[in-house]
Amino acid sequence: MSENKNENRTNQHTHSFLDISRAIIKFAPRLPQFIRANIKLARAKPHTHASPGAIFEQQATAQPEALFLRFEEEQYTYGEFNLWVNRLAHTLKAQGIKKGDCVGVMLENRPALIALVLAVNKIGAIAGMLNHKQKEGVLAHSLNLINPQLLVVGEECVPAMSSAWPYITDWDITALAHFYIPDNLPCEPTLLTNYTNLVQLSSSAPDHNPAETGNMTLADECYYVFTSGTTGLPKAAPMTNLRWYKAGIGFGKMSMGLKSSDTLYCCLPLYHNTALAIGLSCVLSTGASMALARRFSVTNFWPDIRNYGATGFVYIGEICRYLLNIPEQQNDKEHGIRVMVGNGLRAEIWDEFQQRFGISRICELYGASEGNIGFVNAFNLKRTVGFSPMKFRVVSFDVDNEVPLVDEQGHMQQVRKGEIGLLLSEVSKKAPFDGYTKKETNEDKLLRNVFKTGDCWFNTGDLVRVQGYRHVAFVDRVGDTFRWKAENVATTEVEAEIHSFKDIVEAVVYGVKVPNTDGRAGMASLILEQGRRFNPTEFYQHIKRKLPDYAVPLFVRLRDYHETTTTFKVKKADLKKEGFWPSQAEDTIYVLLDRSLGYEPLNEHILADIEAGNIRF
After folding, report:
1. pTM
2. Measured between alpha carbons, how far is residue 35 from residues 28, 40, 375 in Å?
C-alpha cells in the first residue's frame, strides 16, 4: 500500500480541530446539563452515601406514578416496583443476609431479576450475577469464585444450577438456602424439592424501605459480574456503587442526555455490565423508563422498539451487525430512537448503520468490568469511543512478545496522534483498581514504575489508536493483533476491509502458526450470505486492493456459523487452535500460494508440503 493510502486510512480515524469545533458547537445546547453532571461526578467520593438501591428509592419517592419498567405484557411504576423490591429485601434479611454477604442470582432477563438486584443492594449485600447459560463445571467454577451465602434461581435455570452441584467438592452447596422464582414461560419439568418459592415467601413481608439502604456508601460493592470467558474460565469482577453511580451520570446524563420522558430498550443479558452498569444505571440516574426483552432477537428488535415507544437502546457491536445483515425494509427509519449507547460498533459499519436506521446520536463507550477507566463519545463524533476525564496514557507495544516497549531508563514511551499503542490508566485514590474477587490475580493487571518511580497503572490489555483531543478508537485486544513479515496486523482493520466485499455476513481474522516461519500468518474465517457461492479469485482481487501485502490473509476458511459467547463475541481462541488444519468435513479451506493466481483450495498434498517446509510463505 502506498504511503498516501496509509495516511488517508489513518486520517479517517483521527480528529482535527475542525471536527472537534463543529462537534462542540452542536453540543452547546446540552452544555449546562453536561456541566451539572460533571460537578456531580466531582462531588462523588467513596464515603458519599449513595447506591443503586438508594437512587431507585429516591426516584420512587419523587415520582411514584411514573412508569419504570415494561416487559412483554407487564409494566410497573416506580412506586409499585419499589414495594416489590422492599418485600424481597426484608425476606432476604430475614434469612440472615447482611452487609457484605453474596447472594447468587441466576435468572433470564425479566423484572424479577432487576427486583432482586435492587433488593440485595438495599440491605448492603452483593448480587453475584451468574450467567444463566453456564452449567456443570464452568458454573461450579463461577460459584466458587463468589462464595454465595444464599442462592436465588429462576425456575428456567434450575436444571443448569443442578448440573453444577456434582462439580462442587470444596464445600456443600446443598447446605445453602435455595430459593426459586417461578417463570410464566413453559419450562422443562423440574424437581424443586430443594428450593423454596421466594414469591410466596415474600408476599407477606413488610414493604417499607429498609433502614440499611441509607447507610450504604459509594465505596461498597453492589454486585459481581463475570468476564466473558473467550479464553479460559471466567473471572469475577466486583462492581462498586461508585463505578455504577458514575456510569449512570457519565453515560445517562453527560453523553445520552436522557430525560424522565425517555424509554431505554435493553435486550442484552443483565449479567453483562453493558446492561446492568450502563442500561439500568442510566435509567435510574435520570428517572427514565426501561423496556426489557428476555433476549436479543433480530426479528423482534425493531417491532419491540416501536411497541414500547423506545427513544434509546443499549447495544454491543455484534447486535448492530446482525441488524444490518437483514434485508432493508421500507420502515427501517420508522421508530422513535434518537440515541443508542454501547460498545463495539465497528468503524466499517458505523456510517451504514447510522444512515440506514436514521439514528442521530451514537454514544459509543469503552470500559472494562475490572478496570478503573471509561471513555464515552459525548460529542457525537464518528468512529470513536470518545474521551475520558481520567488520567490515561497510550504506550508503544511489542506485539511479538506482548509487552510494552521501554527506553534505556526502563520507562514506557507514549505514541503519537494516529498511532496505535497499549492503553494504560493511572491507579489513584480518584481511580482505584477494584480488580477481581481472587485478589492474587490483581497484580498481573498492574504495571509499576511506568513513567516514574512509585507510579502504578492499570494494563487494560487493549490496543487503541490515539485520535487527538483526548479521544481514542478501539483497535484490538492484545493477542488479537499479530505480527507477520515484521509488520503488525490489526485484526479489526482486516475484518473491516473484508466486510466491504459482497456476500460476506461475518468475517473473523486471527493469526495462526505456520511451520518453519516466524510470527503468525493471517487467517480469515468467513460466513457467506445464504445461497451465495464463494469466488476465491474475485475475493482476492478485492482484498489485495484494500490491504497491504503483509495484511492479506494467507488462509481462508468457510464456515456455516461461529461459536460465540453469551454476549455474542466470537470465540477466537477456538479458531486459533484449529489453525488451517481441516477440522470439520463441511469446512472448505483456501490458501494463498501464488499471488498471481489468488486463493486455491487447500488439499492434502499442499498441507503436507507446508508441514514439511517445502512451501515457504
Report:
1. 0.80
2. 11, 9, 17
